[in-house]
């Protein structure tokens, strides 16, 4: 893969966009797109070449998520979570775990998901209220996770659970078929991102051996802040930048197409031109800061954290603002759902509440810029 953004955009037009409306309407996971993501090598984007992957990093992760979100926010979000989970296994997993999971992704088209958030701790997803009981090499887990994107479709779920070391957590891999694992799909009824299947996961006396723990005992928090955070927060920035860009495309086409009986189009009206300019401005700002944050993160630059946090906030807010303005210029067509604008606006609303929420990130950004501890 040479230019992931352009290849991703082309891929999305052929294999993601055709399903975008249907997966929202029927609230079903984009299975066909995921089969193609496997066939065309996007599921192995971040897996190193030595395991048979493409060996790409944070910048290409952002480019792929951005490109996919320009066609479908839901599919981009599910894909983004997979990449984050892959990075955790890569950065902290044992060689045995890497071989097992990467082979399953590359050879069998399996993919991964993140089961972190809980009903109790909500947006503070790195604090787990689950219970764990150790018995020799085995650990038994009880508890539940509140919203798990790609639930029942992903083959491996990363689960944060308390460590035996007081106040610490572990990051575990729960294979889908594990005894005691169940999902409540009937409880997924999201406003937007409806193809995500983000339903609760119940963990009832699930017993795993320690080979499925990622990294050293008690290293979960380090993984969350060093691996999950950069890839997840940058990835969210890319997903919502792409959503904003998609809104610009829909709105700018509509104002040219919409013609009055006297021959004038919406695009001839100055107020509408200003709205289109503002939609473009927000979408372009979100995309620019997100790609810059990914670049800074990939190069380990000193201000990368601040840029990554800022990018995610800018992108979440831009997507909602672009949706508000796109609904305005879209008029009755947008309101009556002849345009996909309302779907995009519903998708955009997930951005501000997804953990760590835009409010939490605003606090973290202030802390990062003033040299304080995060969180
Ligand atoms: C589409 C979608 C997909 C998701 N997929 C996943 C997934 O795959 N895996 C996963 O683990 N989770 C997932 N989630 C869950 C998500 O990331 C959040 O954890 C969850 O939505 C937070 O839920 P809550 O209602 O308990 O938030 P609460 O903790 O009740 O927070 C609600 C709001 O209160 C404010 N707030 C709370 N605490 C603070 C604070 N300290 N500082 C400032 N403001 C604060 C914020 O405005 C926040 O948005 C998904 C969510 C959505 C919408």
Please, could you describe this protein's structure?
Strand 4 and strand 5 (169-175) form a beta hairpin. The model has no long low-confidence stretch (mean pLDDT 97). Helix content is 53%, strand content 13%. It has 3 domains: 4-111, Acyl-CoA dehydrogenase/oxidase, N-terminal domain (Butyryl-Coa Dehydrogenase, subunit A, domain 1); 115-218, Butyryl-CoA Dehydrogenase, subunit A, domain 2 (Beta Barrel); 221-369, Butyryl-CoA Dehydrogenase, subunit A, domain 3, CATH 1.20.140. The protein is globular. The chain starts with a helix and ends in a 6-residue tail after the last helix. It contains 12 helices and 8 strands. It is an alpha+beta fold. The protein has helices at 4-15, 17-25, 31-39, 58-69, 73-92, 95-108, 220-257, 270-298, 304-335, 341-348, 350-353, 358-369; strands spanning 112-115, 131-135, 138-148, 156-162, 169-175, 181-183, 199-209, 213-214. Helix 4 (58-69) runs antiparallel to helix 5 (73-92). A 4-stranded mixed beta sheet has the order 1-4-5-8, covered by helices on one side. Strands 2-3-7-6 form a 4-stranded antiparallel beta sheet, with no helix packed on it. The chain binds flavin-adenine dinucleotide.
